[in-house]
Amino acid sequence: MGSNGIDLSNNNGRVDLSKGFSGLDFVIVKATEGIGFDDPLLTFFHAQARAARVLFGAYHFGHPEQS
Q: Which region holds residue 23: left if phi is over 0, alpha if psi is between -120 and 50, else beta?
């Protein structure tokens, strides 16, 4: 049995999950990147995931060379 999900970030723009994304089980979204970037669409995507009643997760996109 598989899962159906989508990975989103500011690079995708303001994707509307209510259009064309039926059957999602989860949404995972970039929250931060590197040492100083907070994804401005994190809360937008979180609200959409809640409205769609799917699992939500967030991740940090690291840049080891910036440590």
A: left
